[in-house]
Amino acid sequence: MSIDRATAAKVAKLARIRVEEADLPALADEFNAILGFIEQLQELNVDDVDPMVSVTPMRLPRRTDVVSDGNQQAAVLANAPDAREGFFAVPKVVE
């Protein structure tokens, strides 16, 4: 697949990127270089390659998914300029 000036202009428009008319050939060349690299990668046989998270085999730490209030109410309200009855107090804005 080859990208021409018109396609490069269309991609730039879709990406909301302003590209001067004189810069379109260079942009098309960059797109073609990227597509060439992708074609090179597609030639690799990765059928027997397992997906991995890290270069070292390890299991990611997990925790139980438990809903809680965080036990931080006092610490959070300590930063508030005005707190009443365990909540932030704010001035009334609607009459």
UniProtKB/TrEMBL annotation:
Q: Which domain of life is it from?
A: Bacteria
Q: What EC number(s) are associated with this protein in UniProt?
A: 6.3.5.-
- Report the enzyme's class at the first EC level: ligase
Q: Which reaction does it catalyse?
A: L-glutamyl-tRNA(Gln) + L-glutamine + ATP + H2O = L-glutaminyl-tRNA(Gln) + L-glutamate + ADP + phosphate + H(+); L-aspartyl-tRNA(Asn) + L-glutamine + ATP + H2O = L-asparaginyl-tRNA(Asn) + L-glutamate + ADP + phosphate + 2 H(+)
One of its GO biological process terms is: regulation of translational fidelity
Q: Where are the transmembrane segments?
A: none
Q: Which InterPro entries match?
A: Asp/Glu-ADT_sf_sub_c, GatC
User: Entry's Gene3D superfamilies?
Assistant: Glu-tRNAGln amidotransferase C subunit, N-terminal domain (1.10.20.60)
- Molecular function (GO) terms listed? asparaginyl-tRNA synthase (glutamine-hydrolyzing) activity; ATP binding; glutaminyl-tRNA synthase (glutamine-hydrolyzing) activity; transferase activity
Q: Which UniProt keywords apply?
A: ATP-binding, Ligase, Nucleotide-binding, Protein biosynthesis, Transferase
Q: Which NCBIfam families match?
A: gatC
What family is this protein classified in? Belongs to the GatC family.
> PANTHER family attached here?
GLUTAMYL-TRNA(GLN) AMIDOTRANSFERASE SUBUNIT C, MITOCHONDRIAL
Question: Its function?
Answer: Allows the formation of correctly charged Asn-tRNA(Asn) or Gln-tRNA(Gln) through the transamidation of misacylated Asp-tRNA(Asn) or Glu-tRNA(Gln) in organisms which lack either or both of asparaginyl-tRNA or glutaminyl-tRNA synthetases. The reaction takes place in the presence of glutamine and ATP through an activated phospho-Asp-tRNA(Asn) or phospho-Glu-tRNA(Gln).
Quaternary structure note: Heterotrimer of A, B and C subunits.
Q: What is this protein called?
A: Aspartyl/glutamyl-tRNA(Asn/Gln) amidotransferase subunit C
